[in-house]
C-alpha cells in the first residue's frame, strides 16, 4: 500500500480542523501520515491537538503567516508519502475517499492525480471528466485531489487566488493529467473567507457585477484570474 501524506494548512479554525482530523480517523485507507502546517494561528495548533486522540502519525509545523500556498509547499517538503493530498482544515471526507482515489490511480497509471465532486455546505459542486481544453477555459477541479508525489510541481506562492487552477495548468503543461471520480466524496464547511468568499455565478454577470458590495469582489476575481491566464498564455 502506498503511503498517503495528508497535508493540512491551517490558520485558526481549530474547531473545523478537529472535525477534519476525525474524518481522517474514519478513513478505510490506513497507511497515512498527516502534516499540519500552522500558518501563524492566534492559538498554537500544537497545544490544542493531541495525536493520541486520532490514532495516526501527525506532524505539526508552525510558521509565521505566509498564506495557504506557502503552507502547502512547506507541508509537502516535510511529507514522505508517494501520494499526497492537500486537505483544507474545513474538509470532511467520506470514509472511502482516500481508498477510492488511490484505487483509481492504480487502475489509471497515465493519470497524475484523482479528483471528485464535493459539497460546499448544501450546494453540490460538480467537477467533470478531465478535458484539457475545458480546463484551460476555467477551473473545475478543487485543490483536494490525490497527487503522485513525483508529479507535484509546487504551488505558486505569489498568487492570492486561483492557486488550484494554476497548479492543474502547470501540470497540464508538463503533460500531467487527472482522472475524475464522479462521486461526492467530501464536504467543505462554509465559513467566512476561503471558499465561502465565492460569489454565486450570476454575480459576475450584468447588471449584478456592478452593484455595491459585489463590484469590488468581481474586480478582484477578474484581476486575479487574468494573472493566471497571462502566466499560462491563455487568451
Summarize the structure.
This is Glycosyltransferase 2-like domain-containing protein. The protein has helices at about 15-25, 70-80, 95-105, 130-135, 165-175, 215-230, and strands at about 5-10, 30-40, 55-65, 85, 90-95, 110-120, 125, 145-150, 175-190.
Question: Number of domains in the coordinates?
Answer: 2
Helical fraction equals: 25-40%
Care to count the β-strands?
9
Mean pLDDT, to the nearest integer, reads 90
CATH-scheme architecture of the largest domain: Alpha-Beta Complex
Question: Helix segment count?
Answer: 6
What's the SSE pattern? EHEEHEEHEEHEHEH
The level 1 CATH classification of the largest domain is Alpha Beta
Give a short account of the largest sheet.
9 strands, mixed
Return the structural class. Answer: alpha/beta
User: Would you identify the CATH H-level superfamily of the largest domain?
Assistant: Spore Coat Polysaccharide Biosynthesis Protein SpsA, Chain A
CATH topology name of the largest domain = Spore Coat Polysaccharide Biosynthesis Protein SpsA, Chain A
Q: What is the subunit arrangement here?
A: single chain
Strand content: 15-25%
Distance between the termini: 43 Å
What's the gyration radius in Å? 17 Å
Coarse morphology:
globular
Unreliable stretches (pLDDT < 50, length at least 5) are 193-212
Protein name: Glycosyltransferase 2-like domain-containing protein
Domain Glycosyltransferase 2-like: 5-118
InterPro entries: Glyco_trans_2-like, Glycosyltransf_2, Nucleotide-diphossugar_trans
Pfam family, one: Glycos_transf_2
